[in-house]
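Q: Given only this backbone (269 positions), what sequence would you predict?
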């Protein structure tokens, strides 16, 4: 088994842990963490200066965006479309109402006119700009964390790192010859040993509801889902991340087949 060294930093609203071969320089870790921090700065709904916040505040006007922002928006738009809205990146207004996202100035300005949710066609993208066709708020919380993990892995591979893994708050991707044991905790606190993960990604989303924080996971129409845990394996972390939200909206009897058609493998726990 390859000897590994690990580093951890607070990013993406969680702790991000990276494990690379013991001979890896600190510079390689810095490359990966810097890429994740860049994605955080570009796509955070919480940061008023992010590309995402500038898009939401523009409401109908085109906004120049970083290439990585455009890439993630395209992926979110595509999953919204192919999942028939079971993943929906235009739920920002509804999530603010639920208390799950912050109330920015643009929400206070446009709040009365904003739709609770929209659809994939409400986002217009060019090579370097984005525009909202209708008064919706885009949130990438259901995909950006996995996207950041994938971008960091890509940077590590470009730097010549052959194997390792990144864990961003349960969004995990393993690359190379490593096999990483995976244990998932469900919404009741029980642990499930899922075996080993190799050259793949896994993501878990847990929906909870309480009086203090009324619902973290919504369906395509903005309705709160019952507490459950959704775990999905895929080739990329962004896809696994997004498909956990799709899984929560699909009846259990159809879940495995539906997710397989979207490039994911549902893990019942």
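A: Predicted residues:
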């Amino acid at each position: 088994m390859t000897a590994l060294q690990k580093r951890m930093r607070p990013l993406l609203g969680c702790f991000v842990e990276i494990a690379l071969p013991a001979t890896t320089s600190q510079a390689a870790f810095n490359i990966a963490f810097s890429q994740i921090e860049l994605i955080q700065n570009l796509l955070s709904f919480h940061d008023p200066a992010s590309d995402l916040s500038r898009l939401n505040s523009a409401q109908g006007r085109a906004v120049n965006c970083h290439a990585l922002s455009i890439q993630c928006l395209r992926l979110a738009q595509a999953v919204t479309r192919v999942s028939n809205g079971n993943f929906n990146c235009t739920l920002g207004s509804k999530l603010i109402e639920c208390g799950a996202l912050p109330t920015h100035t643009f929400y206070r300005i446009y709040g009365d006119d904003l739709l609770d949710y929209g659809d994939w066609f409400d986002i217009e993208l060019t090579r370097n700009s984005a525009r909202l066709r209708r008064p919706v708020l885009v949130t990438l919380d259901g995909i950006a964390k996995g996207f950041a993990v994938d971008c960091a892995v890509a940077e590590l591979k470009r730097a010549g790192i052959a194997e390792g893994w990144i864990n961003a708050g349960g969004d995990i991707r393993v690359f190379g010859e490593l096999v990483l044991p995976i244990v998932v905790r469900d919404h009741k606190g029980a642990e499930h040993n899922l075996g080993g993960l190799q050259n793949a990604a896994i993501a878990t989303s847990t929906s909870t509801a309480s009086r203090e924080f009324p619902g973290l996971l919504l369906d395509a129409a903005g309705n709160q889902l019952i507490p459950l845990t959704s775990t999905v394996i895929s080739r990329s972390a962004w896809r696994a991340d997004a498909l956990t939200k799709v899984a929560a909206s699909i009846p259990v009897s159809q879940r495995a087949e539906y997710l397989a058609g979207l490039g994911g493998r549902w893990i019942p726990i």
